[in-house]
Specification:
The complex is a heterodimer of chains A (about 230) and B (about 180). Chain A is an all-alpha fold. Chain A has helices at about 30-65, 65-70, 75-100, 105-135, 155-190, 200-225. Chain A has a single domain (about 25-225), classed as Up-down Bundle (Four Helix Bundle (Hemerythrin (Met), subunit A)), CATH 1.20.120.80. Chain A is about 70% helix and about 0% strand. The longest helix of chain B has 25 residues, at about 80-105. The chains are: A mainly alpha (about 230), B mainly alpha (about 180).
Chain lengths: ~230, ~180
């Protein structure tokens, strides 16, 4: 393995790990492209998973436009916008983390991953307070939809049902992202990544960008133009 | 530089050489995404009617394109991966088009089915709001269009002419909301 060009003052002396190319691959490049190909297939299924919910959103929105308009004003644009910025920043730090792994900047890789995880937690904390307010208003979906104020939106269970399911599924993906990025962080601290092999950083990065991508659509659909 | 696999055959051959992109590019995309976020939030305070949706979705798609092409490196990736991504979007489009071709065009052929999906009955106890009540139908009753209504009369319901008559006048309290917990 090539010695580490510690651009960011890495931890080369700790690096004893050497990635073995799977025996079913011709070479490292073959392995990398195959891994990425497989991951794009997975991302395609993710798009279709959320796609079904987006179709449901459009069907109900075109059927109940006034309900959506009335109910969406009960969401905080400010909190949604802050969360959008938080996710975009975390996507940026993740992209920079992938670049750090490509250029053997071990220390920078670790702290960029840590910042990404921090952003993910900030996102979930803000989401928690949003959910808390909605639940206190009795806006949980379906059977649990129990609003108690005259100003509560009529038929809001349709809107808030979609809101909770779609942002909830997205939130689960954020949680999964935290787990995955933490796993990469642990491996990065052990100095397992180098410019020759950084596949987990790259793939988890792609996953994280997809989570950002979904939110890029959820934010305007629920908070801005409901 | 080369290393052997566990099976002992040599892996001379292509090593992976990362395609490192300049930091400047990542910074520009990041700032671009933030600027577009500010734009879409500011724009949402103005009402352009139908254009609200177009503008918001246009900005979102622009942001999504930036993320996919540059953060996810699809611009520099194998073309086949782009085909997979485009393929998922293609099937998503088919999903959208075929579904909406049904739900948005109902009643254009047969006026008998021209009923829109009616709103869920509002809570009758809130007298300051115009409330509608959808009379429940047994699934076997003619005119139910084969749709069985949910027991609580909530969510999707396809009304019959009799329902429409009921909706015009009645605000019957009762089974419309059976949610737990007091109001």
């Amino acid at each position: 393995m090539s010695e580490i060009t510690a651009e960011g003052g890495g931890v080369p002396e700790k690096k004893t790990f050497e990635h073995q190319v799977g025996h079913h691959f011709a070479d490292a490049e073959n392995e990398f492209t195959a891994n990425k190909f497989g991951f794009w297939l997975f991302l395609a299924t993710e798009i279709l998973l959320f796609g079904g919910l987006f179709v449901a959103y459009v069907v109900f929105r075109t059927t109940y436009p006034m309900t959506f308009h009335e109910a969406h004003e009960h969401l905080s644009k400010t909190m949604g916008a802050i969360n959008t910025v938080v996710l975009i920043c975390s996507s940026f730090t993740m992209a920079m983390a992938v670049r750090a792994s490509q250029t053997n900047q071990q220390r920078r890789l670790v702290w960029l991953l840590a910042v990404t995880i921090l952003c993910a937690f900030i996102f979930l904390v803000i989401k928690f307070f949003e959910y808390k307010a909605k639940i206190e208003h009795g806006y949980l979906p379906g059977y649990w939809y129990t609003p108690h104020l005259p100003t509560d939106p009529a038929n809001g269970n349709i809107f808030f049902g979609l809101y909770f399911v779609m942002t909830g599924l997205h939130g689960v993906h954020v949680l999964g992202g935290i787990v995955a990025i933490t796993w990469v962080l642990v491996k990065a601290r052990k100095g397992q990544f180098s410019s020759e092999w950084y596949t987990p950083v790259e793939l988890v990065g792609m996953y994280w960008h997809l989570v950002d991508l979904i939110w890029i659509y959820l934010f305007p659909l629920f908070y801005l133009i409901g | 530089m080369s290393h052997d696999t566990a099976h002992g055959h040599p892996t001379e051959g292509r090593k992976h050489h990362p395609h490192v992109l300049p930091v400047r590019m990542y910074l520009s995309v990041w700032i671009g995404l933030l600027v577009l976020t500010v734009i879409t939030v500011k724009v949402s305070y103005f009402n352009f009617g139908v254009m609200n949706l177009v503008v918001a979705m246009g900005v979102a798609t622009l942001k999504a394109t930036l993320v996919v092409l540059f953060f996810m490196h699809l611009k520099y990736d194998e073309k086949f991966n782009a085909i997979i991504f485009a393929g998922s979007l293609t099937f998503l489009t088919i999903f959208f088009v075929l579904t909406l071709a049904d739900t948005m065009e109902r009643g254009k052929v047969d006026p008998v089915e021209a009923h829109e999906l009616v709103p869920v009955p509002a809570r009758p106890e809130l007298s300051d709001r115009k409330t509608v009540h959808v009379q429940e139908k047994s699934p076997t009753e003619p005119g139910a269009h084969g749709l069985t209504q949910p027991a609580t009369g909530e969510s999707l319901a396809t009304p019959t002419p009799a329902d429409s008559a009921a909706m015009r006048g009645a605000t019957a309290p009762g089974e419309s909301t059976k949610a737990p917990g007091g109001h």
